[in-house]
Amino acid sequence: MADARMMVRRQAGARLWLSAFWLGLVALAALFAPLIAPHDPLAQDLFLGRMPPFWVAGAEPGYWLGTDSLGRDVLSRLIYGARIALTVALVAGAATCVLGAGLGLMAGYMRGWVDTVISRFIDIWMAFPPVLFSILLIAVMGPGLISIIIAIVIIDWTRFARVIRAEAMGQGAMDYVASARVAGRGRISTMLTEILPNVLPTIVVLLTLEMGIAVIIEAILSFVNLSIPTDDATWGGMISEGRVSIHQAWWVLVFPLIALFLTVLAFSQLGEGLKDRYDPVLR
Amino acid sequence: MNYLELKGLSARIMRQNHPLLRSVSLALAPGEVRGLVGESGAGKSMIGKAVLGILPKAVELTGGEIWLDGQDLQRLSARDRRHRIGQSCALIPQDPLTALNPSRRIAPQITDRLVDILGWERARAVTRAEELLHEVRIEDPARVMRAYPHELSGGMRQRILIASAFAAEPKLIVADEPTTALDVTVQKQILKLIKDMQARHGTAILFVTHDLGVVSKVCNRLSVLYGGMVVEDNDIDSFFAGPRHPYSRALLAATPKYTDPGASLTPVPDSVIAGVRGEIEAFDQRQAHV
Fold first, then answer.
1. Which domains can be identified in chain B, with CATH numbers?
2. Is the ipTM of this complex over 0.90?
3. Cα torsion through B96, B102, B104, B108, rounded to 10
């Protein structure tokens, strides 16, 4: 029994620390981009186009991960791209979480007409095809960081609302909620002290997943050129540019792809790790 | 004067014409313990919930009055009703495993009501909570106060729930099958504990159970329910000496006897069930004509 628990804990520990390590690295890169980036991410040098990364013959010293077709440094662009990726992940993730979980909690706990209104709204909302919807939104609002964040929130809040509503409903039927009500506790207060702490582990998992998804959506929108003006370095934009020259310069495509993959993976693993560590029932 | 009095309380599932309670009347004097017995679905838990104002959303009261301490609860605004119930009532729930919030420590779960209801300082409430835990015979209350529910056994959690029900000195406690989820040896201790606490604090208890053995140990009076209707209201001694209603008689006969463990169980005879069903139908018809 004790051994099994140790196993679970050790696994959870490794998962948590590895993902936290990678996300920490990305966060540092984003924060100190101007200090660490070896080159200006926008500086073009047509004589240095498509230089390979440092371990391949013919590499240009100082350009560690090579250059793209316009001679821009891939590593520097990757580092600056982390800024946008993380901003989108944090802001869009948090906003989606607050909106979705808030509505879900209210629907699940208060039931009645509140639930009916919110649930029907979710149903209608989910009937829109998300990619088309986001493209439409950005077409209306114009490309840019804010538009992407708003698009992500508007598309994805239903995910939170659905799951949290179901959880809150389960919690609402528990006897401790009845006891709190008998003791004269108000509805909002009961919701915050008795229900919220019990759905928090789920919220954390969803939030980290959502951050990963936000990074992907941003990359997709950059890929179809609807995100940030193309000059700015974004991972999705880099992938989209790299795709064109995959046979001559694979590194332009592969490095941002790896960064994207690891970041999304790290976000989802962070959520699982946190849940294993802080869920009082598992602890 | 009676502390709690139900006068012809009726309830049904919302928008359906299926009655859950059929004109239930009963009274509870201060410090009295009344058992509510009946089979599953007889409406015994529903009565407790109605008194405490925690009926499920889908259930509505269709008639009758609930008088608590000389006040008709139905006449109060929702807010005043909550307040009044909070001041004077508490609940001992059925399943100790789901009755404590798993993500909070024990201490705030007991002290909350002292702070909410009596307006005490947190520190004073903590001291009182420890005394209460001591009173329900928990050794090392300080450690238990810091624990999370999942670190404690079922019996221990039920003790905590009892302590917390008595914490704010309520005048009325609804005990909703408080021993059903516990194993038999623990059941006995918990029953004794509830009885002791009741005697010491002089609290009236509405004791919901399906176990006549439990009723005989803790209650002064009992109401037997069938199909949401009170078929018998009697005091304990005369009930066990000779129940008046044929259904109660059959129910009592169906209780396994410790004196004769090998005997086969006697189910409630179909003729008796048909009899009560007939009474219920007659009642519903009378209601339809009113």
1. 4-98+172-289 (3.40.50.300)
2. no
3. -10
Residue A179 domain boundaries: 2-278
Does residue A14 lie in a domain region? yes
Looking at residue A54, which CATH number applies to its domain?
1.10.3720.10
Kindly state whether residue A184 falls inside one of the protein's structural domains. yes
* Model pLDDT for residues A89-137, shown as the tens digit of each residue: 999 999 999 999 999 999 999 888 999 999 999 999 888 887 788 888 8
Q: In chain B, which ranges are E strands?
A: 4-13, 19-28, 33-37, 59-68, 71-72, 89-92, 172-176, 204-208, 221-226, 229-235
pLDDT tens column, A214-244: 988 888 888 877 767 667 788 888 888 888 8
A96-115 residues touching B, CB cutoff 8 A: 111-112
> What total of structural domains would you count in chain A?
1
Flag whether the pTM goes above 0.90: no
Structural domain contains residue A283: no
**CB pair distance less than 8 Å for A181 and B90:** no
Closest to A184 (Cβ–Cβ): which among B86, B94, B103?
B86
